[in-house]
Design brief:
Layout lengths: L2 H37 L4 H16 L2 H16 L7 H27 L3 H9 L4 H31 L11 H12 L3 H27 L5
Helix pairs in contact: 1-2, 1-4, 1-7, 1-8, 2-4, 3-4, 4-6, 5-6, 6-8, 7-8
Length: 216
């Protein structure tokens, strides 16, 4: 196989990896904020359930969660799932897993805010919702951005775990080519792709952090 053909196939796999990355962030970031509210809830049942969810997601391997979500419907409920369900299962597993990590990051940021800001906002006539959206959340985003960046970079590499259910993303294709051609070159190229992807992500997040520096 020529280098051009190899790069073309790996490029197609990279597009799938980017789709997994983008959709996971799209769903896990807002879900994580929602879960963080449950984690800080004054209702003991809600707080306990969200705490158990976070513990389960962070305490078990993402690959195991992926396998359960993919094979679970057919094994437990006898529901037939086609090959198109692979991609859906990947997005579900990645989203609920990363939402748990983002939830704790959100919680640490929200709980670090001085209580005086809430009291000052109340004196100025802000409702709880207005206080959170207009005053607290912008500062929280700035504070948690480095931690969120670390998780996002980890997500780039974790997209390779989709191979567990034969979802043809870049790492899966690289392994297939390497096995067929008995060469390590595809894996080396895949490593370069991951590095470049992470470099771009880190650069973008650094720009975002600088843009929010006025919240200091």
């Amino acid at each position: 196989m020529s280098i051009q053909m190899m790069l073309l196939q790996l490029g197609k796999g990279m597009l799938v990896s980017v789709e997994i990355f983008a959709l996971t962030l799209l769903f896990s970031l807002p879900l994580g904020l929602f879960v963080s509210f449950g984690r800080m809830s004054k209702n003991g049942i809600v707080r306990g359930l969200t705490k158990a969810y976070i513990s389960l997601m962070r305490g078990t391997p993402l690959m195991l969660q992926l396998l359960i979500i993919y094979f679970g419907p057919s094994l437990l409920f006898k529901i037939r799932t086609g090959t198109e369900y692979r991609f859906v299962a990947v997005i579900i597993a990645f989203s609920i897993n990363y939402a748990a990590y983002f939830a704790e990051i959100y919680r640490s940021g929200i709980e670090s805010m001085p209580i005086g800001q809430y009291e000052a906002a109340k004196v100025l006539g802000y409702s709880k919702a207005q206080t959170f959206v207009k005053i607290i959340l912008p500062q929280v985003i700035k504070r948690i951005l480095p931690s969120v960046t670390n998780e996002i970079i980890t997500l780039v590499k974790d997209t390779s775990l989709a191979f567990a259910i034969a979802q043809a993303e870049m790492f899966t294709i690289a392994k297939q080519i390497a096995a067929a051609q008995t060469t390590i070159m595809p894996l080396m190229i895949a490593g370069v792709f991951y590095y470049v992807f992470n470099f771009i992500v880190a650069l973008v997040m650094e720009r975002v952090e600088k843009a929010l520096s006025y919240y200091r």
